[in-house]
Design brief:
The longest helix is centred in the first third of the chain and has 24 residues, at 36-59. This protein has nine helices and seven strands, in the order ααααααβαβββαβββα. It is an alpha+beta fold. A hairpin with a 2-residue loop joins strand 2 (169-178) and strand 3. It has helices at 3-10, 23-34, 36-59, 62-81, 89-112, 119-130, 148-153, 205-208, 250-261, and strands at 138-143, 169-178, 181-189, 197-204, 219-222, 230-237, 240-247. Strands 1-2-3-4-7-6-5 form a seven-stranded antiparallel sheet. Mean pLDDT is 81; it is low at 107-113. Helix content is 46%, strand content 20%.
Length: 267
């Protein structure tokens, strides 16, 4: 099993141990044991799931909990009577209703605790980008809002920065791949951030599952370590995700974004 498949499978692991005997999960555990990156992502997922479980009771609305219990009882009765049939309209209706309700509750939970779909993957992508040396960037003097043609020539369509970022100076550009998906990367000097620079990333949201909601709203991730803080700002629009990675804290990034959005050309 490769690292990508293991990462995707381990996202479905139930911390209670119900999946420990499953053959595919055992293969995923073995792959994680050989990859520090996959193991770290798995441990973050377990920690997230534990926090979610602790808070779920206070997040689920009373009506939602009653509906879920009713669906569970219906499924139990049907299983005693006969095997599940995908052609059974009643079972399809119950299954669809359950999926919609569970999806809604997961969305509410993620919103309440500050997460979003693909948060761990976004941090992993940023770490991959951070590891690139200056020699991996093509030197380029331009404005961030004029790079669509350069990336189009490299085979990447749709590069665009959010309003207010068009006039930022660029010193380097590159196109690399993360989990086989193309990522547009831009090195930008920014005096308002602690390191005096930042990296812009843009990519298709769907293949990597990095889809912060609601659209056009910045979401923050602290992904560094004590004494080496790094922060990531993420937003999406029209199926594309845009990220800004930099040294510093969440407060540093929030002040920077507020200053950008306060500019007349951003409004």
């Amino acid at each position: 099993m490769n690292a990508r498949t293991a990462r995707q499978l381990l996202r479905l692991y139930r911390p209670g141990g119900e999946d420990d005997g499953d053959r595919e999960f055992r293969a995923a555990f073995k792959t994680a044991g050989k990859s520090a990156e996959v193991e770290a992502a798995f441990q973050r997922q377990i920690a997230f799931d534990c926090v979610a479980a602790d808070r779920l009771e206070s997040v689920i609305p009373e009506v939602g909990a009653e509906q879920l219990e009713g669906c569970r009882e219906k499924f139990a009765v049907r299983r005693r009577r006969a095997r599940f049939s995908i052609h059974d309209p009643a079972m399809l209706a119950v299954g669809f209703s359950t999926l919609v309700l569970v999806g809604l509750l997961v969305w509410v939970l993620l919103t309440r605790i500050g997460g979003f779909a693909g948060m761990d993957e976004a941090a992993t992508l940023a770490r991959t980008g951070d590891a690139a040396g200056a020699e991996e960037y093509d030197p380029l003097t331009a404005k961030a809002g004029t790079l669509d043609d350069w990336f189009l020539l490299q085979g990447f369509e749709g590069f665009k920065v959010p309003p207010g970022f068009e006039d930022f100076d660029v010193v380097g550009v590159r196109l690399f791949h993360h989990e086989a998906e193309p990522i547009a990367a831009v090195a930008v000097p920014i005096a308002d951030l602690p390191d005096g620079r930042a990296f812009f990333y843009m990519f298709d949201s769907r293949p990597l599952g990095i889809m912060p909601e609601p659209e056009e709203t910045w979401r923050m991730i602290d992904y560094g370590s004590p004494g080496a803080e790094r922060v990531l700002a993420v937003r999406a629009k029209g199926g594309m995700t845009f990220m800004i990675a930099s040294k510093g804290t969440r407060g540093d990034m929030e002040r920077f974004l507020s200053a950008v959005e306060a500019r007349p050309e951003s409004n």
